[in-house]
Sequence to fold (1039 residues):
Amino acid sequence: MSDRALAANAVFDAEAAQARRRWLTSRIVIYAILVVFAVVYLAPLVVVVLNSFRDLPEINHNGLIAWPRSFSLDYWVQAWSTYCVGGTCAGVQRNFYNSLAMTIPATIISTVLGAMNGYVLSKWKFRGSEFLFTCMLLGVFVPGQLSLMPWAFLLGKLHLANSVYGLILIHCVQGVSFTTLFCRNFYVNIPDDLIKAARIDGAGFWRIFWKVIVPISPPILIVTVIWQFTGIWNEFLFGVIFTSGTQQPITAALVALGAGGLSVHAYNVSSAAVLIGAFPPLLVYFLGGKYFVRGLTQGAIK
Amino acid sequence: MTTPSISPSGTAEAGPSFRERLAAATPFLVLLPSVIATLVYVFLFTAWTVYISLSKSAMFPNATLQGIKPYIDLWANARWNIAYHNLFFYSVLYVLGAMGIGLMLAILIDQRVRAESVWRTIFLYPLAVSFVVTGAVWGWLYSPDTGIQMLVRSLGWTNFNFALTASKNTAIYAIVITGIWQSSGFAMALFLAGLRAVDPDIIKAAQIDGAGPWRTYIKVVLPTIAPIFLAVIVVLLQFAIKTFDLVVALTAGGPGLATTFPALYVYDMMFQRGQIAQGAAAAIMILAALAVVLVPYAIYLVWRRRREMRNV
Amino acid sequence: MKSAAMAGIGLLTVALLMGAAQAAPKTNLLSQWDSGSDAAAIAKLGDMFKAAGGEWQSTSIAGHTANTLAKLNADAIAGNPPPAVQLKGPEIKEWNETGQTADLTDLATKEGWDKVVAPELLPVMKPTGTWVAVPMNIHRINWTWASSKAMKQLGLTEMPKTWAEFNADCDKAVAAKLVCVAHLSQDWTDATTMENIVYGMDIDLDRKAFVEGDVDALKSPGMIKAFDQLRLMVSKYMDPGIAGRDYDTASNMMAQGKALFFIMGDWEIGTLNAAGYKYGLDNDYICGQSPTDWGKPGFILNSDSVVLFKQSDADYAAGGQLLAHLIMSKDFQAIFNKAKGSIPARLDVPVAADAGWNPCQVQSQKDLEASISAGTLVRSMAHNMTVLQKFRGAMMDTITQFVNSPNMTSEQAANTMSDAVAAQQ
Fold:
């Protein structure tokens, strides 16, 4: 090969090498940042998991953030069946089922309502519908402390106080603002032509809903379900104020984790209780995470 | 109702039948229950709260009015002033921080990294955890005697400082950091979705024009996903306004009064201190703080729509 | 022995109820005792209620008292007040004024409560002269706990009697590189420490300022001196980590000898017992009355009590009477208080070491009687037994701010506290 060709090749190789080095460096930087953040994000979870297996004297001696020097599965059993929550010492299982009984219906109802509302507000606009949408949107901002007493009054009048139905009502009303927001912004991206074509074929309001809207809704419905399930499951204030004794949801058991002590603090059992309580939302996020992003890809946000 | 219904036969009927009127009214009727519920929940409850804030309610709601004294007492209270200031301070840092970190993580993950679903799950899971638990566990991490600070110091870095909750000057930052930890995953998910939806042709065009990766992002990609910023801000803002469980679990409003927040103040006044009127006044002021953000935005929306209609 | 007692109570109760309508007593006790030894103690009450033929339910809400009070408020607004609620101090009076509380006069007269309950408690339980609430216990607030290990290390053999002695002991501790006062900074713990100081320095000042809420007393020179003492303790005798520390850690600091003193009420006994520490100069800890400058036995009193609310359902109404009767029974008072570290609210229940009571509890009852005789018994502001919550909140806010703001002077604190209380009037 000629000298010049060799030189050109060398330069080309050098450039390629430099480009590859740059690519490699950027890869390393990207992964390094991700790893550091991942450690920070995972740290609290790791701590709680470890603490749920440690003996209490060992925790008191070595502190809450320490590598475990004891191990026992007892505390999980205790958390499920003997932990004192809300006045009885029968573990969190009752509270777990109470939370399910409250969260599942409220999630389903508010999701269905949100889908229907979103459909109306994006495809069947009428005079004043935008204004109504804005009004409904304000619902996401109302703090619970403000609405506590009015809800108490209302539930009293409806004879729903201290019952799971009262809580379902509260969470539906408070959740419909979010679900309507998500669904409406998603449906806005469905081409109007699809709707027009269906109408020409003679389909009415409900037909179009079932045949056109619902089939393409799964991504946004999953987003809504995840959001509602997590929000309702983790809600503490109303769950505890509007129930009694054995009806309390699982969040009642979580407060004891941080509660400042005039009595002895079983960090290990309460850590296990916390993990039991966090399990359903974590599962929902784990399974639905991919749909969460996908659902939002198709424009839940506009 | 402006959407006309076409009857099955294809011809316009002489006058709308009951069935057709019902069909035309269906969208409105479907929306109605939610609208009524929201009107009650937002407007009626707020109106009740305004009434109570002007009443003599102490430990129990009392219908006798007494004027704006609760508001005067409210603003004369040092703790309230600290709380109100904390709300604005925290909201700005929290919203910007969560958005910033969420955006950064989304951009990183968008770089075709391996095991994307793993990264995504790791950053998203904190949202599944209750604020109560987050506050309690981060309280352990921040503890000067038994937390991260002790751990790192025992490994040799004796000047490492992580006990943010121990000093009244740094405690608010502990809340900010913990809040960002909880919510930035959601911002990341939204941004990631948006980044995925960007038309690859636009990016190619920019690259052909010679823009480097940074330039492409700032000039081309981010403006395309501008609507997402809005959705993120709405969600983060409503979390910020409602800040309660996190603070109670993490610092209980302390040290001293350093991390007290309006929602805590409302709750304490209403139920602990038997001063419902002042608590209601504080709740109204929280909504007023919100108006500071929402009203300019509403005006902007109207202005933008007017401009669009003019340009059509 | 216990089951015989319960059977006896059962019989007595049946006899009591025979006269009343045929109602199956039911109740639901709303309280904040949801975990650990508290929950166990309430469970015992439940056992006794069930043994007496009643249907027992209890709703305990964790976290701050505000949660329990919020639920009470919500239920009352809904028109459905809970049958029995843990309430104390001025709240008893306030709820009584809403007219929703049940009347216990008959029961009280029949069982002669006026004669056996500590006199300082009577105006709290009978805000308008008739019995409305029943006290479950008496807690002593003016205890100082000392680490036996640290005492030995410093060559001390007895608890300091005056604040001057306290400071001298602390200087020795600091010189030996120990923390003198273990502390965790929260509004109630800071207020507890301050209350101990004010009471110990000038009992009349404590009465005027913290029991009556007099605004002049709150900014008097005596109060400024008390803040000086608090400032000295926070800056020199406590360690920098008081904010964000939890109760157990602070207690362990004292019990393990890292700190010399811990100023805390008698529920500390429950914590120490559960962690396996033993009383005695040769063991882990000893207790002593918090320093007083006026040399007599003193007692700052706190009492948990239950208020019964009017119920439309006859079963719940009967349950309320049964519950009140059980709470005031000698057996419940003994069982309940032994584990918690407090002493019975009835003066005629014997508290003796050979019956399983902790030596500090035995001392507590002796000091209670002595304090009554000496006229030095006061109720606790820090634990919500004196002024209305709005005044108490104003005081506690100032005190905890003072503790956490090194730049706040004693004079500023006293004036701020006085102004804050005046603003609430």
Q: What stands out?
A: Chain C is about 50% helix and 10% strand. The first helix of chain C runs from residue 2 to 19.
